[in-house]
# Entry
Amino acid sequence: MSDSIVRQKKLLKNTAWFTVGTVFSKIITFLLVPLYTNILTVEQYSIADLLTTTVSLAIPFFSLIITEAVLRFVLDKKNNKKQVFTIGIVITAVGGVILAIISFFIFKNISVIKLYWGYFIVIYFMTAINTLESEFLKGLEEVRLLAEIGILQTLSLVISNIVLLVTMKCEIMGYLAAYIISYGIANICYFFGGKLYKYITSPCKIDRNLIREMLQYSVPMIPNSAMWWITNSSDRYLVSYMVSVAANGIMSVSYKIPSILSIVISVFMSAWQISVVDEFNTREGKKFFNSIYKKFVVASLIFTSLLIIFSELFATFMYAKEFFSAWKYSAILLLGFNFHAIAGFLGTAFTSAKNTKPLFFSTFLAAITNICLNVVLIKSIETIGAVLATVISYFLTYIVRRVLVKKYVRIKWEWSIIAGYGLVMIQLTAILTLSVKLRYFVCIFAVFIILILNLKFVVQIINSIKIVITKNR
# Structure
């Protein structure tokens, strides 16, 4: 069996397990959106979204993104796994305590959110611990266990939401409590199911050189993560301030349909993070990266194009009441999420080479662009301006990384793929300007042309799957 087939077999196998856990779990979570939009007001949903968004901002700064180092270093066979995991625990715990102290004084001076400080801190710890444990288990390649616990976590989220929102009518408190309960159950299962207690050692026994190496890897990623947050989430604060909290609620829910694309991509990326480290610096490893990249781009392009067609249909059963108007924002954001996914794929080249500086540079440019565009566009065209700013920023990140990645692997520009993105732009124009029947015709015809133009890559994707399945038998 050739090395290429072995790599593809491993990638497909891991992708299959992550699909079982992630896609099933995320689809069910996705189906909870109608429940949220029916029970919560636009303002309540906006506040809950701002709290979870703020947690995502705080994690990089207070955890030092140690989870990225945990995954990367546990994949290196030479490293002591006990020490790697313990370093992750200590840094996560210390950072959480510091955040609790600082945020207490901030929250008590903001009337809108001061009642939710306790929820905010617990959500932070639950999220940070969940990420640490899951990334460590991913590094151990315990993909089946991750899939099983992912399903359990989702079921607990569904049950908690039904009890707290539908039965007990707890509204926003119930929404936040359900989030905490589901993450808490998952964290306990990770710890005991993955026997993580075996990987805890005394902090006094930790090699200081290992701490330094891990921090040298993770700390430079803090600005990168912060810049991603600015690109991903700053518009929500600006829309709340410059337009209204209700407008932010509508924009926040518009991210739910593009999250379908993110779910599918994240499944593959979870498996890819394990595979890409293997022999990345070899000639064969770079050839493998190049091959998978082109297949990845074509697959995500086709899926994005299909989701754009069905975005309004999905919105009819997902977005209740005044939330329905978010569907057009969702269609536009799908293109941005596509560029975000490809930029993330290219980013694995830098992390595999243990050079995270290009990640920061690319996201820094995107973040500055995002802020400037948000200020200008929100002022002139309100919420849709924030949506457009996000898409442009994601595109800029992709372009910059596409140029910088040449240092590690050369990727040829494919005109069939470029033409495919032109057709997606035509789809979006049709969505926003044409009548229902005519826009469906244009969008479906565009998908057909994309398939024809990229037929060779589609055939390669199908053949790769067939080969791996056949060899596996």
